[in-house]
Every structure is written in structure tokens, then in C-alpha cells.
Amino acid sequence: MINVGQVNNLEVVKQADFGVFLNAGDYGTVLLPKKFTPEGVEIGHKLDVFLYIDSDNQIAATTEKPIAQVGEFGLMTVEGVNSIGAFMSWGVKSKDLLVPFSEQRGRLNEGQSILVYVYIDKASSRIVGTTKFNKWLDNTPAEYKTNEQVDLIIAERSQLGYKAIVNGEHWGMIFPSEVIGKLFIGKALKGYIKNVREDGKIDLSLQKIGVGKMDDLSAKVMDLLEKKEGFLPLNDKSSPDAIFAAFRTSKGTFKKTIGGLYKAGKITIDSEGIRLAKEA
Prior knowledge:
The protein has 280 residues and is mainly beta. The chain has helices at 211-227, 240-247, 251-263, and strands at 7-16, 19-23, 29-33, 46-53, 59-62, 73-81, 85-89, 97-100, 113-120, 127-130, 149-158, 161-166, 170-174, 188-196, 202-205, 231-232, 267-269, 274-276. The strands form 4 sheets. The protein has a 5-stranded antiparallel β-sheet with strand order 3-2-1-4-5, with no helix packed on it. Strands 8-7-6-9-10 form a 5-stranded antiparallel β-sheet, with no helix packed on it.
């Protein structure tokens, strides 16, 4: 199935001096301009191309990869604003993405970077963007389990913490006590379900909950010690940033983990760092 607004794998059916024509199924043939055509391409070859609607309301193809396809979120920069709305730089140089005024939660200004959701407007059949996410999220029950790993995109910052988009489908919240490392709007990362409340709201964590995270981190510490010839320059006195850089976890979790490994006789701890115990 051919999807406009997404990357498709299409077959070359005709060559010309100005590019190649691709078989786009029910949409007929689509031109891929010469500047986007890889060298050595021949009839019968298949290419990954992004299909979009150009300024003449025709389907166009490019090998440029957009920041976000239809159905995805992406951090984009406002290139300009006119009487219709804001035009976003989304990775397709020949066509900016329009975010109409009616789809802006607050007025966008040139040079501003903001998270945008890409969709096809049913009325015009054009690819557009929106910063109003609520109508696209929480449309299905949040049937997650505690400690389930999920994909997150940081969407907003508030006094409560960070609002994140969970698996592109739901809103979730990362409270300040769960924040490790640096978070910023548009950042994509892995996280874990901490709790799904009775009202469907989702609490998130950036590391596993309870014993699971300890076991997970223990394995990572032992594995890295093996790779580093039995020594790591980290201990319970190390800075949170140094610990996060090595293991993407909080200092508190790291201290509990190496404490458990020490009690189990698997490591030793000194002023320089941690070492594999001889019998480990």
C-alpha cells in the first residue's frame, strides 16, 4: 500500500534526463528529480522515497528524510509566518510544513523550535502539522503494565515535571523525583511505566522500578567491569553526572546496586572506584 506523507519503497519504471519515474500504484507514476536520484539507478531498482504534496497539489517524491512522517511527532523550527499560519522546516527542503493558526496552541514565531504532530487534513488532503496534541492522544485505554518499557518523547515542562508522549498514543508524566540526566522538549528516549492510575493517567520512570532495576543495573555494572579489565573509576562518591553518563541511572540506584554487589562478594570498593573481586 502506498502512503502519502510516509517513506515508501517504489520501483523505477522509466528514466529521463531530469530524473526517474517511480511506480506509485493507484497514484500512477511519480517523478523523482535527478538531484535526488542515486547514481547507478536503473529500471527495476527499488528506492526508499518520501511522498508528499507539492505546491501544485501534485504528489512528489524525494529521498530526503523528514523529521517526522504522517502520524509522528518531531521537533521542528519555524521558518516563517504569514496570514495562513507558520511554516516549519521538517527536513524536506523543497516544501515546508504548514501549521495553520487554527492548529497552534499559542502563536508561533520565526526561529522558534517546537514539537509538531504531522497528519493529513481530511478537508484539503494536504499534509499539515499541529501543536494541539490532545485530539491525537489518549483515544485508546492505557493498558500498560508496571515496568513495561515504552518509547517517550518529551513534550512539555510544567511545575509538576515533564509531560511525555508514550508510544505515540498517550500522555504520561515524569515527576521531578524521576528525572535523571538532561531532558528537553523533543527529546526521544526509553522509559518505563511506573503506574497507570484509575483515571487512566500514566506515571513514568526513566529507569526500572524496584528490584527489577537493581538486577538490570547489576548486570550492566558487571558486564562493564569485565570489558574494562576489572576496574571502573566510579564509586558512591562519584558525581550524579558521571554515574548517569556511564549507566543512565540515578546516583541513589547506583549506590544501592554496588552495595549489593559488594555484599555478594562480587566487587570491592575503594577511594578510586570499584573492582572485580578475585573470586567474582
